[in-house]
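Submission checklist for the structure archive. All mandatory fields must be present; incomplete records are returned to the submitter.

[x] Identifier: ABC transporter domain-containing protein
[x] Organism: Glutinoglossum americanum
[x] Residue count: 646
[x] Sequence attached
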Amino acid sequence: MTEPKLESGNAANDDLECGEDGAHLDNATLGAFSWQKVTVTVKDHKTKQAKEILSNVNGCIKAGELLALIGPSGSGKTTLLNVLAHREATSGAKVESFILVDGTKPSLKAFQRLSSYVEQEDALIGSLTVRETLYFAACLSLPRLVRGLFLSNHILRKKKSSVTAGERTRRIDSLLGAFGLHGQAQTLIGTPVRKGISGGQKRRVSVASQLITSPKILFLDEPTSGLDSAASYEVMSFIRTVAKQHNLLVIASIHQPSTSTFKLFDKLLLLSAGKTCYYGPVHQVKPYFDGLGFPLPIMMNPAEFLLEQTNVDFARDREHACFRLGKIQDSWANSPEALAVLNQIGQRREEMEQQGFSSEEPLRSNKYLVVVTLLHRSFIKSYRDVVAYGIRFVMYTGLAIMMGTIWLRLDTSQGSIQPFINAIFFGSAFMSFMAVAYVPAFLEDRGTFIKERANGLYGATSFMITNFLIGMPYLFTIAVIFSVLSYWLANFHPTATSFLTYIMWLFIDLLAAESLVVLISSLFPNFVVSLALVAFANGLWMCVGGFLVNPTILNVFWRYVFHYIDYQTWVFQGMMVNEFAHREYSCGIGCTCMYQTDLAPKCMIAGTGVLDAYGYTQGRTAKWVGILLGIVVGYRMLGWVVLQRS
């Protein structure tokens, strides 16, 4: 298969507008970012009383500064990061805050244009290369030139507000250089079956992909999580270099950095139990705590010392630890440094009072181009990632060979009627059951979607449309391969019409099965839980589909509650009609016929007699197809609703 052509560093130099490399990252407009009286309260489910996660937290950073949010587990640093980034703090929380950009309060859309958020987990697509990851990040987030028109989500924009192919390439190249990734540009991120780049390089790619839109404020959630001290220092060094060079504002929650990593930050906000213990320059930490009577040992990591002083959960003398923490928190609240932070926020607000703040909507790619871009990316992922469809091709091929050789060349005697029915059930039921193999691939896609939606790139509609469209050709190919191998070996009704109809039923069966996987995996985005529930659902569909228990005698509860909404019901019914509607079978020795039909005097059985025993009627193929497509659409719509609300 030919590799899709992506822009590279040698792309045409059309209308480059960014000047020298990395110029698009420069921040010449945003001077400061501040927050005041940030308080987050949740209701304790046991006591039914309000509990503060954050209490009256203040702070301010200027362009070119890096701020570290540090604190023991449960201190509120991730909650604070989410509040500052205008994300949901925590489920059911009440948030009070006064967040200012250059002394004024921007709209949510304007803030999204200014900022980017890098998740703790690297939600990267392992089957893409580093360059492709940045390329698709650019295509999803930046308006593009298409046949002479610059398009955005809502209106046509002027040329200066859009990004040409050449500028997009320039941005990608400059970020690869800034983060030391040129050598890995054509290397895959890495999949479970194919090794890719290192953990530290993945973190750099995650940050670089968020910088493609030229944000002025960068939020990092545990950027060194899972990395050793050398890799942590490497990642933060690259981030610091880019921030200083381009005057960006960086706020990162970080867990116990090494001494060298700790010194890379300009400012520190130390939290414990939701309250501020220190806020200010990193180099002032030692004199400040020395003055409180908690001197920092010379040979000790400052971050480790601070966490020890503010952590009460693992203290041997809990009462003494709580007293010490209370003293640290009270000392800060009454300190001249805390008053200076408030004065700084107020002063900045007064300076910017007359200027206001632009509420221009964020530049985003056109929604139709987003779908095209997602299809392009998914196409690359699906044929490179053997987990998505490669393994399923092998499984279904093996299943077809097994089925065809077990039910090999069945004849048209009445003894073959039940084996034919068994083969129809096995082929349709197990084909849909094996769709559980799609669970891990969908969960990876969902993780990428959640991250990209949080950054305002696209919504559930674009994701669901792309997911459905990209799967159709692969599922159709699987249906054809399975049918070619099994249908003729088993000697099903040997006509072209019946063969093509069999492929149609199998294809719709796979569409419904994959749609069920999408719905359940959206509801329960956990590999083990999704796998178990999809398997359970398919087991239920097998039981009530009409084969194991004839629909004419199926218990009324199972029949009216589950039988009619079971997609396997309609697939089995359609395949049965396809096989038996136009076939005749010999009754064998003594003309004792298993099914009594009009052909009994000729010692033959009309296939319609088998259909009558199951209560199946001919001539309703269009109706059954419509019901199946309705089930597919229903699963997808429910999945869309779940993703919208997640």
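[x] Structure attached
Curator remark: The radius of gyration is 31 Å. The first strand starts at residue 32 and ends at 43.
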